[in-house]
Amino acid sequence: MDRVTFATSSGIVWLGLAVHFAAGLLSIIAGAVALSAAKGGRLHKQSGLAFTCAMIGLGLTAAVIGTYEMIPSQVFAGLLAAYLVFSAMTTVKPLPGIGQRVNVALMVLAFAYAVASLYGGVTEWLDPTVEVIGRPRVVPPLVVGTVILFAAIGDLRAIRAGGLRGSRRLARHLWRMCFGLFVATGSFFLGQMKFIPESVRIVPLLLVLAFAPILFLFYWMWRVRVRGRSSGIIVAGATQPR
Which of 6, 107, 174, 180 has the smallest CB count inside 10 Å? Predict the structure, then answer.
């Protein structure tokens, strides 16, 4: 099946695309604001909440559209994005009524997805006859599988510890949010590159915009986990000590 577009769709499919596009645009804007705002401040919290809601909407609509187009990789990528930002938000702001069973269920699903993704990547590597639709071969499932495996291991550690505190809590929140934003920027600036007018299609700039969240991810992991600096970051109403 050909990829659906605004020009070739109508009715509920067109509406789904519109919601997906709007959620993607909002997630990029809100994510950029959250990255630039003082961490833990009012603007950061508000933009972070908007980013979380937009990314969940983006991920779920991507999964639905991927199901309609019969592109499994898009389905799993959408669910991955929703899982990362949801678990990132609940790390610093647990939702009432969300118990340990939900965390365990998400962890099990993450482990299952990681195994399936890594197995798929290895299979594509060893068997060149395997057909791939909607993405490059080998590298994406191996990278995504590795990322989600680390996320699942992090879930297991958090569950066994009964929750995280201090720099570990901040690191879990920050890396998942940054990688979730990367899913949005990569999908928009690289995945939709052919729809950007040639007059403004500056590939080096699009690459920078797409991979900027990864740079922020490395910066925050270096600052919080390597240097142990969390001064000025406010979580749960308290400024974390240096």
Answer: 6
